[in-house]
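testing teh design pipeline on a random one, pls ignore if ur not involved
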């Protein structure tokens, strides 16, 4: 484990991911029960939103901890920044 990672934050992220997993299981049940398309679509939108929120939290964690760990471990600042920019850009794709 990296030294700058907050274990409580990790727990919160895992809890959010478990919630997403529960929502996905709910959509599976809705499909099996042949619920209305609108109901299923709304749940899928909620799942996408929840995954995006987790992505933002992990991106913040990346910016706050992973980058500083890499720099403290002697990695070149420009290389770390370029890698961070490329990684964070993927969040918006």
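output:
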């Amino acid at each position: 484990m990296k030294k700058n990672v907050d274990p409580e934050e990790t727990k919160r992220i895992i809890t959010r991911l478990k919630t997403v997993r529960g929502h996905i299981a709910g959509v599976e049940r809705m499909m099996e029960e042949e619920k209305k398309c609108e109901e299923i679509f709304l749940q899928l939108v909620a799942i996408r939103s929840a995954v995006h929120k987790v992505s933002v939290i992990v991106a913040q964690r990346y910016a706050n901890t992973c980058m500083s760990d890499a720099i403290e471990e002697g990695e070149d600042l420009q290389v770390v920044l370029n890698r961070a920019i490329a990684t964070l850009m993927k969040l918006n794709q």
